[in-house]
Design goal:
It is elongated, with a radius of gyration of 18 Å. Helix 1 packs antiparallel against helix 2. It is built from 3 helices and 4 strands. Strands 1-2-3-4 form a 4-stranded antiparallel β-sheet. The chain is an alpha+beta fold.
């Protein structure tokens, strides 16, 4: 239940993250876990068109018709290094309020259960 950082996930779980230089089977990511909830995932974006294109073919949901050639071409022209962290405010509110479900803290009424 203590705050924990999970790092170096299998490459198949975060397909848009850069592979680790020492072990390409994992990617350089971290996820902050508090009370068993993922609060903040973060990683560096994969900006190598060769590695990205090769990874697309390994994914069962990507076929030749669905491969985004325009995106790969844009990567070939040069995408600067990018990365980021996304903190889920809804999950943070869940943690602070002790809510058991994200539906208890979500602001959008259409996502709340019917009463």
């Amino acid at each position: 239940m203590n705050p924990t950082f999970v790092t170096h996930l299998p490459a198949e779980l975060v397909v848009l993250a850069k592979p680790n230089k020492q072990d390409p089977s994992v990617v350089d990511v971290f996820e902050l876990i508090i009370n068993g909830q993922e609060i903040a995932p973060a990683y560096s974006e994969l900006n190598d068109p060769v590695v990205h294109g090769r990874g697309c073919w390994r994914r069962p949901t990507v076929t030749a018709e669905k491969l985004d050639e325009d995106f790969l071409l844009a990567l070939e022209h040069g995408m600067p290094p990018a990365g980021g962290m996304g903190m889920g405010i809804d999950r943070l509110v869940m943690m602070l309020t002790g809510a058991e479900s994200i539906r208890d803290v979500i602001l959008f009424r259409l996502m709340r259960p019917q009463t």
